[in-house]
Amino acid sequence: MIITLQKLFTCSKIYLFPVLLVSALFTSCSNDAVNITPPKPEFILNTDDLKDFKSWPLKASFLSVKNNQWRKIYLKLPEGGTVVDGVYPQGTVIVKEIHSGVNITDTILRYQVMSKRGGEANPKSDGWEWILTKNDITKVVSRGGNQTMVNGKTCVSCHLGKKDWVISTLQ
Ligand code: HEC
């Protein structure tokens, strides 16, 4: 009699375990489904979006004495987006135009662009994408995360430590 009861107990445990597991899974899945808010989709810059950048607000136009280059910085905020405590909203695009010499009329060497993709993109630099183009802004040389480079240095090597990775005061 005792043996039979023990057997029954062991068997019921064996059968009960998967039943409990499956029901636990269902319970946790249904709870998760209720609580999760889908992440905001990333803002993925299309190079065509850059074509009209000259019509964006020009935030700086200056001679970099250190580099003997004239530079301009254009900023585009997304519609309705604002900078909060120096943090730029998802969808922000900043274009830096680099001229070959000290005059504003000197030919353009290249453009360096920062685009705030947000979402799941590049959390190592708070969702910024780093983009290097030729003197034609739609001709991308490289774009991506913290490994993106110019002149043998990563973009982030200079931008690291600045508020939201932005060096200039643009506001
Ligand atoms: C050698 C250091 C250095 C590297 C490398 C560098 N930057 Fe910058 N960047 C600067 C400095 C300094 C400024 C401030 C404006 C100026 O003096 O030209 C700046 C400004 C900018 C701006 C204007 C917004 C701001 O932060 O002021 C953009 C956009 C930008 N850089 C993009 C890039 C991208 C993209 C790369 C890589 C492809 C890159 N930078 C690599 C030093 C650097």
Description:
- With 171 residues, the chain is an alpha+beta fold.
- The protein has 2 domains: 1-36; 47-165, no CATH class.
- The chain is built from 2 helices and 8 strands, in the order αββββββββα.
- The chain has helices spanning 2-35, 155-159, and strands at residues 58-64, 69-76, 93-99, 108-116, 128-133, 140-144, 149-150, 153-154.
- It has a 6-stranded antiparallel β-sheet, with no helix packed on it. A two-stranded antiparallel ribbon has the order 7-8.
- The longest helix is centred in the first third of the chain and has 34 residues, at 2-35.
- Heme C is lined by residues 64, 71, 73, 94, 96, 112-114, 130-132, 148, 150, 153, 155, 157-159, 166-168.
Number of separate domains: 2
The small-molecule ligands in this entry are: heme C
The arrangement of helices and strands along the chain is: HEEEEEEEEH
Please tell me the overall pLDDT: 86
Total helical elements: 2
DSSP strand tally: 8
Beta-strand percentage range: 25-35%
Secondary structure: helix percent = 10-25%
Lateral arrangement of strands in the main beta sheet: 1-2-3-4-5-6
Q: What separation lies between the terminal Cα atoms?
A: 85 Å
Overall outline: globular
Q: Report the structural category.
A: alpha+beta
What Rg, in angstroms, do the CA atoms define? 27 Å
Largest sheet: 6 strands, antiparallel
Uncertain ranges = 1-5, 8-12, 14-30
